[in-house]
Amino acid sequence: MTTIYQAIIIGAGQAGLAAAHELARRGLAPGADFLLLDANPGPGGAWRHRWDSLTLGRAHGIADLPGLKMKRPDRGVPASRLVTDYYGAYEDTFQLQTVRPVQVSRVEPVGDELVRTTSADGRSWLSRMVLNATGTWTNPYIPYLPGIETFRGTQLHTRDYVRAGDFTGKKTLVVGGGLSAVQFLLELAPVTETVWATRRPPNFTAREFDAGWGLAVEKAVRERTHAGETPASVVRTTGIPQLPEYLRGVEEGTLVSRGMIDRIDAGKVRFGPPLSARAQGLGPSADGELAVPESWDPFPTGHVEEVDVIFWNTGFRAALRHLAPMKLRSRGGIKMLDEVTPAADPRVLLVGYGSTASTVGATRAGRMAGRVAWKRLRERRGA
Asked: What does DSSP assign to residue 42?
């Protein structure tokens, strides 16, 4: 006899763990009423794959999961180890019985009531609801540029980074305007000659990265996702904090953007026409002049630079390919009824998607998804 679970949660990162806790808190038994599936061989979510030099500090942090606070992080210990230990303790404390490793390849509707979740190795589970918390780490984004396939040097993405020593003696082009690019540039500068390429002037902001900032970021992204548009990149909304080490990087020339490349050849890249501040939508300052950061110092159109490495820090996209059979997308994207519910099919909840992609947002979305799922399941039983 086939077991029909009340819910399947896909992904045991911040969002998935928060969702599992909420379901368990409301009386659903882990392993019996719902399953928590995870693609990794152990706890930690995407954090277990981060590079050793990434620590939890001013620019990177993690929100507490419901019911169990994280001990004050040691900045001398890699974030990958700290978060893996924390997530593992969380799974044990609440006896979530995570099933791993499970690489989900397909989620599809079964009639009008059920959903089938299938793994890459052929296992499958039936459930009344699916809470998808697969995040973005497995879906890195690299923009296509003419000639990208002809480059004879090394190309890598943020998720491929291991250590600065791998770049020793090479000339490295870092592409991307976010915090990861900024931190990699500073880390690589002592061992490699760096060039920074961004599509927009680096957005150095004096605003404090506090709770109000976080709410403003989420609001800006939420407005797009609720309208069914693709979520905007985080850096467009967050900006880069004016930390002392970052400002020194600007003064020393390390954190000075040269504009954006428009072509790649065997061992070199070509810079395209620099966008004007007005074309990029930058607002005027108090005196009416366009407020362009001092670090904006683009190369002229057609400038050619020889490089050994292209390091893409161009972000990630939501990992949702396995949900294609559920037909959640419209022409522009996935229209959302709220922060977790796609308009096309409420049997699937997107946890940690769009405006809730941060650890703070993921925790909130996990709890919200658990409440929504529990309410919906009760309504079905009462129907």
From this structure: S
179-209 pLDDT per residue, tens: 899 999 999 999 999 999 998 888 887 765 5
Residues 6+ apart with CB under 8 A from 215: none
Cα separation of 3 and 318, whole Å? 30
DSSP 283-327: PB-TTSSB---TTB-PPPTT-EEE-SEEEE---B----GGGGGG-
Residues whose CB is less than 8 angstroms from the CB of residue 353 and which lie 6 or more positions away in sequence, other chains included: 132, 225, 231, 318, 320, 334, 340, 365
CA nearest neighbour of 17 among 42, 43, 40: 43
CB-based contacts of 76: which residues, under 8 Å, 6+ apart? Answer: 55
Asked if 329 and 149 count as a contact pair (C-beta separation under 8 A), the reply is no
Q: 33, 46, 30: which is closest to 133 by C-alpha?
A: 46
Q: Residue 231 is encoded by which pair of tokens? A: 């979520």
